[in-house]
């Protein structure tokens, strides 16, 4: 009996390693943690830098302005009034020295508000010039992750072709854990910048290896679309929890607390990967994948990548600029800075799961086209909000539309590789991740500079119009030609060298419908 009981865990592990669902769970958790860390810093960093750098500097200077108070010891009743009230009733004392002291204190205090008048939760923060500069600094910090990912992603795509997806996935977990711990204990802008860049390396390993692994185990196009929708649900859930979780924990517990919780969850994910994925196992692809340079010359892959880039660039521009705009115009407290992203996160979660199934029926190209148009309209409506409740509609529409685009484009990338190239997915999902990262690299860095130059409303108008103008290009994804057809047209080879499209299940018209399998069988 005991030997049989001992075999049970090993049987479970063996069954788990052969289960596609557990692979999906691992990828889901990895994307969840990556995007929780991505968004948990959104409400924390602007207020943390404002507190430590602006208010900290002013509070250290404040004693120099209060040092002239001791000469007022001759008139104790009025000296207490001089330090707290700057009204004209204090001149009733008739003392010339006291009146001079009042004049000196008023002239010294007027140029700089006293540090003791720091904003209450319902008051607007001081330092307009500091906040304007902070737009650029916070934007660069947020963009550093995506910039590093842009550099690392192609190398990770090549690595997965050589050694498989398991080891890169585990490397991503280790780097993400180190980045999370560093965030928890960083107290300066430089250390936060390094932690954010380190997160970019770990995210590159996790996302490219995870999406490539899913595409390799779910070979059927319909099942792959559903699996991608569920995995992107993990991404959405991370975005959903991240910003509100970070703002509430920072307000009521402290800066380090949300990152320590994420570090603990990352350890659990690492243990799950050790049990399920066998990260010591080297399993290269049996066939050589299409080079990245060849994939980048494919116009259909470029159109799909552009849709990913521009749709996500909108929310990427909002991340550093919306909290600061809310501080300036709505006088929002800390906890509202993260809660403003809650409608977008909830609607993104709904959109990815809903259109993971619906997009296959109504056409993924059509979902992408409609999604990008709605993204543009939602961004145009954001500056119209006068309080946090006015952001619910625009942010909700934005999240739902991005969910439509992401859950449609990710399966399209795998389908295009099956249709037009070799069915090895590491490189194409490296390109997809590069497109995603370009949005999150250009968005925050350019967004902060644009806000400082012409203002937040104009930033929303610019990126909204770009999304609406790009949307019609998704029509080209409606029925992309197969690889053999392209070769026959461009190279004018003998028609006998091309295959008949009516007998190829992999070359059916896109988008697929429920009746496509029946039509293919009848054709055979």
Automatic annotation (TrEMBL):
InterPro entries registered for this protein in UniProt: MFS (IPR011701), MFS_dom (IPR020846), MFS_trans_sf (IPR036259), MFS_Vesicular_Transporter (IPR050930), Tet-R_TetA/multi-R_MdtG-like (IPR001958)
Membrane topology of the entry: Multi-pass membrane protein
Listed GO biological process terms: aminergic neurotransmitter loading into synaptic vesicle
GO molecular function, one term: xenobiotic transmembrane transporter activity
Stored CDD domains: MFS_SLC18A1_2_VAT1_2 (cd17384)
Superkingdom of the source species: Eukaryota
Predominant cellular place of this UniProt entry's protein: membrane
Transmembrane segments: 21-45, 171-195, 201-218, 230-253, 259-279, 300-318, 338-358, 365-385, 397-417, 429-450, 456-477
Subcellular location: Cytoplasmic vesicle, Secretory vesicle, Synaptic vesicle membrane
Major facilitator superfamily (MFS) profile domain mapped to chain residues: 72-482
Keyword Transmembrane among record annotations: yes
The reaction(s) this protein catalyses: dopamine(in) + 2 H(+)(out) = dopamine(out) + 2 H(+)(in); serotonin(in) + 2 H(+)(out) = serotonin(out) + 2 H(+)(in)
Thylakoid found in the keyword field: no
Keywords from the named record: Cytoplasmic vesicle, Glycoprotein, Membrane, Neurotransmitter transport, Synapse, Transmembrane, Transmembrane helix, Transport
One Pfam match: MFS_1
GO cellular component: synaptic vesicle membrane; terminal bouton
Coiled coil, from the record: none
Protein family membership: Belongs to the major facilitator superfamily. Vesicular transporter family.
Name of the protein in its database record: VMAT1 protein
Gene name as annotated: Slc18a1
